[in-house]
Write a structure and sequence with these properties.
single chain; 9 helices; 8 strands; disordered N terminus
Length: 280
């Protein structure tokens, strides 16, 4: 029990009883208020002893249950601390801000990508000179980091990454007039309202949608049909649903890659990238 054990078997408070009360509260303060000095613990403990023994008879104090003793303890300790100007509140030590690791393209990451690209070009086209491989690799890395943030690229699926890298590589080969012995076809198509119109399908989850004339769209997903309007601003596709989805009617997607028959878009909400193909 709290401060209520091993009392002498007499009707009044004895020196033995007072020693026990003092020792118990002194130990309690040392365990729960480690910031207190020995002098502060002694001062509060003596104050506690005087308050308890003057306010309660030994018989009434011993008759109290645990929760009553706990309330008495907390109340008297708080009052004694205030009376003697002792602060029982421990100010939390200021925590040093731990900077979050920025998800950006780093020099180390670009160096590793350059080495991988350089080695890949050497295996695929053995006739390329060291200067040509270096030119293509540098061009490709610069184009990749200018088009995609680190997070956007990291959230692409492997198949999507391969398509993006192939398109960038082909563009760099063509721009720098490097002959690899293979005809490179560069698709410079950009998404517009006109060329996005049509029927598109995601063959992974079998959802599909129609971007229609008059800016209306229809989407079939999971057996349900959704309708709304669509718009395009730069490379951001916006779908505005007639009915709110999870509290919002609007969804924005960044178009990462576009060809007349296929395009990759990324949700600006979940950062998930999706590949859809035109249904002819």
């Amino acid at each position: 029990m709290l401060f209520n054990s091993a009392y002498a078997q007499t009707a009044s408070w004895t020196k033995f009883d007072r020693d026990n009360i003092y020792s118990d509260v002194y130990a309690y303060l040392g365990t729960n208020y480690k910031q207190l000095t020995n002098d502060q613990r002694e001062t509060i403990s003596l104050c506690f002893l005087d308050e308890v023994t003057s306010k309660y008879t030994k018989e009434s104090y011993q008759a109290k249950i645990e929760i009553e003793l706990k309330r008495i303890r907390n109340s008297v300790i708080d009052q004694c601390a205030k009376n003697h100007g002792v602060n029982l509140t421990v100010a939390p030590e200021p925590k040093a801000d731990t900077p979050k690791q920025a998800k950006v393209w780093t020099k180390k990451g670009k160096d590793e990508m350059f080495n991988s690209w350089y080695a890949y070009l050497g295996k695929r086209w053995k006739q390329l000179t060291a200067e040509q491989k270096q030119t293509i690799s540098l061009c490709a890395i610069n184009e990749l980091v200018s088009k995609y943030s680190y997070e956007e690229y990291a959230n692409l699926m492997e198949a999507e990454k391969n398509k993006v890298l192939d398109a960038i590589q082909n563009s760099c080969i063509s721009t720098n007039n490097i002959d690899t012995g293979v005809q490179v076809v560069v698709d410079n198509s950009k998404p517009t309202m006109a060329n996005l119109k049509g029927h598109w399908k995601d063959y992974e989850d079998f959802s599909e949608f129609w971007l229609n004339d008059g800016n209306s769209f229809t989407m079939l997903s999971g057996g349900s049909r959704k309708n709304g309007t669509w718009s395009l601003s730069g490379n951001t596709l916006t779908l505005s649903f007639d009915r709110a989805l999870l509290g919002s009617k609007e969804r924005n997607y960044k178009i990462l890659m576009y060809t007349p028959d296929k395009f990759v878009y990324q949700s600006l909400r979940s950062m998930k990238a999706t590949t859809v193909e035109r249904v002819k």
